[in-house]
Design goal:
mainly alpha
Length: 83
């Protein structure tokens, strides 16, 4: 069992967005969320609800479970590096 790490969500979303060379402004439009909301998610001050995860996943052209898996992997990798 892995412990949830709130900053992992934002790190994964930021990494995926930057890999696609998208600004927060453009990507938030694709995800139909406010740019300020995306910024807070990316910096870990706000946690997205499931609807927001769904919108973000679709904007990345993936299924929500794929995004959640990437977040799980990030948490797992980060906890392994901390050991």
């Amino acid at each position: 069992m892995i412990e949830f790490e709130k900053n992992a969500v934002g790190r994964v979303i930021r990494r995926l967005r930057k890999e696609r060379k998208l600004s927060q402004e453009v990507f938030s439009g694709f995800a139909v969320i406010a740019r300020s909301h995306l910024a807070m998610i990316e910096n870990g001050t706000k946690q997205p609800n499931f609807e927001t995860i769904w919108r973000i996943a679709l904007a990345f052209n993936m299924h929500p479970h794929q995004l959640v898996k990437l977040i799980e992997d990030e948490i797992r990798n980060n906890s392994n590096q901390a050991e």
